[in-house]
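Bug report (template v2)

What were you trying to do?
Predict the complex of my protein with zinc ion.

What happened?
Run completed; filing so the output is reviewed.

Input:
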Amino acid sequence: MRFFEVNPAEGPRFTGYINGVHRWGLPGGLCPVCHASPGGLGEAYPSVDLSGWAHRQELVEARQVPLEEYERLRDQVRSQVPFDAPLFPGAEFGPLTGKASGKWGAMHLPEPWTLVMQRDALECMRGAGIALRASKMDLRFLGRTEVELLEIEVHPRGRVHDSCFPGGRERPCERCGRQGGSFPDAPILDSRTLPKDQNLFRLTDYTTIIIATERFVDAVNRFEFEGVVFKEIPVL
Ligand SMILES: [Zn+2]
């Protein structure tokens, strides 16, 4: 199986942008050892509805808290998440809410880490046997273009191979697990960590990076959907 990084298509037909946030989110947690926040920008679960949860008010405001406070909230919200998930600091839940503008592809990355699809494109992909978890969005469209967009939920799975860090990879922080280092120029995926049951996932160690399988890419190409482009990443 081959794997591909999903990137936004560029050009005047793909200007769609969302000024908004998911309704709830874990705070950033400041680590007392490495003095950073092991943040997971992009980790979002729009299907997780916290509207009936007693502690939801604690997850409304974006903020930085001591690591122990983040861990307390993370352990508390885990009971509301019906699947395995890392729940890094900053992980978000509930519908993406905000203002949308610009022109939209059939699939589209309004941010490099957020994937949305138009309804008919989603149905085609599902018809082709690609299982996708999609959630309604709470958008107000500015301007004349109004389309039905759904956010595709992309779970963290898989890691970059340690060998693509010349000089060795930074060791994870013993307290919070954060592993520094920017995304390698020539990334390679670690085959032992890749999911066998997902056609779309984001990397656990670089949560802004979305990866699609060859099967997903073939379906997109067959339907000639525009709005994203794919770059193959080798696997070791
Ligand atoms: Zn740390």
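What did the reviewer find?
The chain has a mean pLDDT of 96. The two ends are 12 Å apart (CA to CA).
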